[in-house]
Amino acid sequence: MLPKIKAAFSQSKTRYGSKRVHQDLKADGEAVSERRVARIMRENSISPRLRKRRKPRTTDSNHSLKPSPNLLEQQFGCSVPSRVWLADITYVDTDEGWLYVAAIKDMATREIVAGQWTIICDPNCAVMP
Fold first, then answer.
1. Distance between CA atoms of 63 and 25, rounded to whole angstroms?
2. What are the C-alpha distances in Å from 68 to residues 65, 89, 127?
3. Hey, is 15 helix, strand or coil?
4. What span, in angstroms and rounded, lies between the C-alpha atoms of 91 and 82?
């Protein structure tokens, strides 16, 4: 059984665990339990390589640009619409990669005035109200 497990494991480019190796063996007509496959893999130190944790790249601090001035000075209260806007960007991890979401919020009405999402974090990708 070990040679068949090793063959199925190497066909998966060392990514499959016992559950998927068992499914491959079962599809090939082998009558073996998943627990047995797991035990044989454990006893022979056959384990899938771990996936690298994906991290988004959102900030490039290697520049000589000055930060924008803080005009509000933490005074976020506003009663006149379209006078004070708040902008932010965030990212969401999806099965297909990172989704970057940018939005502009009117502080008087507390409504999203504009928003955009993209799969590439591009500084030239502007959000226009």
1. 54
2. 9, 16, 17
3. coil
4. 26
Listed residue (119, 57, 28, 76) closest to 5, CA to CA = 28
Q: Which token pair is 57? A: 């790249």
| The total number of residues written for the chain in this structure | 129
- Determine if the pTM surpasses 0.85: no
Best CA proximity match to 59, nearest among 114, 123, 103: 123
As given in the structure block, the two tokens for residue 95 are 């099965």
Half-sphere exposure at residue 65, Cβ-oriented, CA atoms within 13 angstroms: 8
Which pair of tokens denotes residue 47? Answer: 């384990």
27-42 pLDDT, tens digit per residue, is 999 999 999 999 999 9
**The token pair that represents 41 in the structure block:** 């893999």
